[in-house]
Amino acid sequence: MAAQETTGSNVETLMSALNAVRSLRSQVTHYFRTVADGPKETDDEQQEDNNNISEKYATVLENIKNQLRDLETQVGGLNPPTTTTSLGNTGVLSLDPSPDKLRLYHQLLDCYTWTEKVHCYSTTMNQLLHGNSLKRSSVSISKRRRPTQYNHNVPQQQVDMTIQAINQMFQVMTLNVSRPFGNNAVVQVTLGRVLRAVVTLKGLLIEWVVVRAYNEPLLDEEGKVDLYTPSQYKVFQKVTDNANAAMLNFCSPGFTDLSVRSFFTWLHSYQTLFTDVCKRCDSHLHNHMPPTWREFRTLDPFHEECKP
Fold first, then answer.
1. What is the pLDDT of residue 152?
2. Using one digit for the tens of pLDDT, what is the confidence trace for 122-170?
3. Residues 242, 247, 249, CA angle at the centre, nearest 5°?
4. How far apart are CA 257 and CA 206, in angstroms?
5. Going edge to edge, which strands form the sheet with 195-202?
6. pLDDT digits (tens, 9 = 90+) for 263-295
7. Would you say 243 and 209 are in contact if contact means Cβ atoms under 8 Å apart?
């Protein structure tokens, strides 16, 4: 109780000292303002002001002395703190007279405050996560089906056998494998008299697809396979975009053959590109375009604006 009373009286004395400082600053400002104004320049009042200027200065100085004496009395009544707060090197920042550098001290205090909040929140989250830890399935890893190798790292013989097996699945679609750039295979696809395509593989991973019209060449002027030149027809440009979307949809790193077989099955559905009607609007053309989208599971044709 005695400590609390001492603290309360010390706070009241500190507030009185601050009020005394405020009054002292006001009187000093008033004094300098009076000195700066000086006597008035009118002829009628000039003589009177010259006689009273010394009395005004003396009165203001006497008030300043009285308030300074009161301030010294208030400061003398303050009790020094019993415990010292160690700020370390940060306390030196508050003593820097430069206003630009003084802001660093307050910013550092804010940084410490936010650090304490982050530490508190992280401790709470750590307790919550430990109370609700996720557990792996009890199924043995050996019982799960794991890929023996990745799609991009398979022998050339396996790639050729896979493409040959897919080629025998369809009568109107022909697949020709070549390797103009090394070990990676390039498949030239001819689908009836509807379209031609170039499928770039890395192992059994499809990397890029370009679809062109049947009357557009697959080779460039130098006789090499043209991998990137798009079709001049808007229909096959749309089919190319959809083919690359299907390539990503059917990509399955865990199964080396299924993803490639599913993609070519999807591409084979374009043999009726110009004869199928849209499953939604039941029309051949929409905005002068046939149904260029094929649903991945059912292979149903849709216009770009009608696809689900």
1. 61
2. 888 777 777 655 554 444 444 455 444 455 677 888 889 999 999 999 9
3. 90
4. 11
5. 173-178, 186-191, 195-202, 205-213
6. 999 999 999 999 999 999 999 999 899 999 999
7. yes
Cα 228 to Cα 215: distance, rounded to the nearest angstrom: 17
Burial class (CB in 10 A: 0-12, 13-18, 19+), 188: middle
Q: Contact at 8 Å (CB) between 286 and 303?
A: yes
The first and second tokens of residue 131, run together, are 């109370």
In angstroms, the Cα distances linking 97 to 85, 88, 92, 109 are: 22, 18, 10, 18
Spatial contact of 260 and 187, defined as CB atoms under 8 Å apart: no
pLDDT per residue as tens digits for the range 87-132:
566 556 556 555 565 566 677 777 778 888 888 888 887 777 776 5
Strand partners, 205: 202
Q: Distance between CA 110 and CA 98 in Å, rounded?
A: 20
Task: State which amino acid sits at residue 190.
Answer: T
